């Protein structure tokens, strides 16, 4: 089924469509293919229009818009973050996104991005770890076993060959759920009784907790030399996961400093504290991991180019897929200036029925 060409029709990927597209592709294959798009766009970082996301904060959470453009396509994501939602049976994070043609301004894709954001966040984590994690790392601690956890585990398995997973969450049921979901998928899994136990022997440590507060998930004494830390949970002002002393011992890598200094772990540090931009490492301008004893930290807050990559990837996948709906989204009058005439013709059609 080809992507629709009618000017009023925009391909719409619903949650059901997205699940079917991911399953038809295979979750690990989807993550690997998506990672290629993310890496490609980091390599052409300087071609993007970049700005911190537009955020509306409240005591209960945040609603954000994340726009960017490469001059040919424009993309944005609407996303929220409300940790209290779990108490009412709702998702902490929900999202949808739009990809548009810059030349005409017409949208060319509308898609759910709750599932897609989980996939792109995991794929970005694994892309960063390709350049920052110890060579041949096979064991990852995953602290915070919420909605993101399985995706993170599978991305590191698919892209880095991680084999062993050590889980910890303050809610042991969350860890047990994560273990059940992942157990048929080729990982050796241990559910741990504490964060300290989880990080024992781990070469990669991923933190992905949801509480909207300055927390100390990892303390300095828990981090030995040579570890790579993938800090995912700190993603808004006043929300961090790592003790400040860990940051001072680490080489820190970020997506977009003006955003990360507001929202990431480095909000704990001086505004001029040295960090390295991930695109510089991926493009080969700078080196990521230089030596075995180096502690590397990817201070991941999520950036609009990663959503752009995900939108671009999904649009390309639809060219050989029927996992979308034809959404009558745009007014398309017979004569472009006669929008009111289109309304009158609709009235006549209704009256004739």
Automatic annotation (TrEMBL):
Q: Report whether NAD shows up as a keyword of the record.
A: yes
One Pfam family name is OCD_Mu_crystall
Family annotation (InterPro entries): NAD(P)-bd_dom_sf, ODC_Mu_crystall, ODC_N
Instruction: Report if keyword NAD is assigned.
Output: yes
- Provide the alphabetized UniProt keywords: NAD
PANTHER family per the UniProt record, alphabetical: KETIMINE REDUCTASE MU-CRYSTALLIN
Query: What family does the Swiss-Prot or TrEMBL record give for this protein?
Result: Belongs to the ornithine cyclodeaminase/mu-crystallin family.
Recorded hits in NCBIfam families, A to Z, give: PRK07589.1 (NF005762)
Recorded protein name is: Ornithine cyclodeaminase
The species this protein belongs to is Rhizobium oryzicola
């Amino acid at each position: 089924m080809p992507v629709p060409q009618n000017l009023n029709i925009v391909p719409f990927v619903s949650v059901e469509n997205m699940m079917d597209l991911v399953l038809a592709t295979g979750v690990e294959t989807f993550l690997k293919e998506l990672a290629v798009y993310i890496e490609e766009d980091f390599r052409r970082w300087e071609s993007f229009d970049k700005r911190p996301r537009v955020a509306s904060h409240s005591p209960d959470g945040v609603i954000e818009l994340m726009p960017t453009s490469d001059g040919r396509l424009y993309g944005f994501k609407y996303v929220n973050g409300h940790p209290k939602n779990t108490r009412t049976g709702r998702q902490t994070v929900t999202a949808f996104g739009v990809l548009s043609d810059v030349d005409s301004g017409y949208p060319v894709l509308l898609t759910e991005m709750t599932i897609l954001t989980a996939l792109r966040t995991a794929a970005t984590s694994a892309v960063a770890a390709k350049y920052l994690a110890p060579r041949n790392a096979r064991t990852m601690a995953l602290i915070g076993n919420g909605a993101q956890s399985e995706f993170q585990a599978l991305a590191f398995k698919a892209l880095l060959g991680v084999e062993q997973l050590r889980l910890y969450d303050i809610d042991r049921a969350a860890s047990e759920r994560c273990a059940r979901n992942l157990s048929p998928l080729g990982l050796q899994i241990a559910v741990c009784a504490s964060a300290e136990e989880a990080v024992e022997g781990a070469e990669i440590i991923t933190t992905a907790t949801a509480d909207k507060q300055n927390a100390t998930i990892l303390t300095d004494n828990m981090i030995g030399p040579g570890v790579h830390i993938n800090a995912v949970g700190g993603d808004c002002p006043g929300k961090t996961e790592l003790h400040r002393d860990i940051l001072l011992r680490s080489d820190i890598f970020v997506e977009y400093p003006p955003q990360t200094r507001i929202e990431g772990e480095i909000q704990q540090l001086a505004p001029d504290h040295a960090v390295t931009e991930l695109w510089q490492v991926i493009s080969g301008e700078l080196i990521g991991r230089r030596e075995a004893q180096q502690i590397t930290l990817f201070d991941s807050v999520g950036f609009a180019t990663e959503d752009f990559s995900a939108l671009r990837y999904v649009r390309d996948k639809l060219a050989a897929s029927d996992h979308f709906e034809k959404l009558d989204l745009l007014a398309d009058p017979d004569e472009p200036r006669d929008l009111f005439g289109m309304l009158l013709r609709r009235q006549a059609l209704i009256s004739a029925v």
